[in-house]
Known about the structure:
alpha/beta, Aminopeptidase
Amino acid sequence: xxxxxxxxxxxxxxxxxxxxxxxxxxxxxxxxxxxxxxxxxxxxxxxxxxxxxxxxxxxxxxxxxxxxxxxxxxxxxxxxxxxxxxxxxxxxxxxxxxxxxxxxxxxxxxxxxxxxxxxxxxxxxxxxxxxxxxxxxxxxxxxxxxxxxxxxxxxxxxxxxxxxxxxxxxxxxxxxxxxxxxxxxxxxxxxxxxxxxxxxxxxxxxxxxxxxxxxxxxxxxxxxxxxxxxxxxxxxxxxxxxxxxxxxxxxxxxxxxxxxxxxxxxxxxxxxxxxxxxxxxxxxxxxxxxx
Length: 291
């Protein structure tokens, strides 16, 4: 049994009737409600602007409440506002009056909290947006989402003595081309724990084994080690662990048309077994963190 979803403009929260695991599942980039004014202001068509979106990840995670875990999904489309960035990561090349942010590769590549580009480096806007608009997006979407995420993790620590955030994303199949020179090792799943900084090694090992046991090819921290969310919320010293999971989009969708393909349902069923194993890890978190 699950509770009815609590939906706001910023997020959708699905809660189980009974929290049975310290794991919190989240999908910050599967939002697909694009404001009409934003689409009119963009130079991209409706398909191109979705290329950075983690399309359908929220649907893939839809069964986790049956496992006793909450699911938090962001409603803001990633091209509109990126929940996996700090609220202060403003890009002066796209936000008027924003100050230069020294030594920030995410901003330099156009992927600040208000993105300048989508996948492939394609520009979203013709010019800049006002600072007032950037602040309104952050206040409307960013703060409520992160307030709720912090609360869920705090609840897990209170109930179980530990919290494990599993922050789920999707990656373009072409992102794995850099590893194609290793036959049989092109990852289908990439687990990021900031090279051990955001989660205890025993927990990361257990999550990796959960994927491998179901036949997935897994890599760790390359090419995705984890961004703002796992960097911020992964605090193993207080019993709060955070992992970023990247899933190869080709496993469940047609990247060209951004539609689920014929293997979507079988893949979701296969993934559900993995998610069940990960939820079970939540009951063993203290032991695994000590290993």
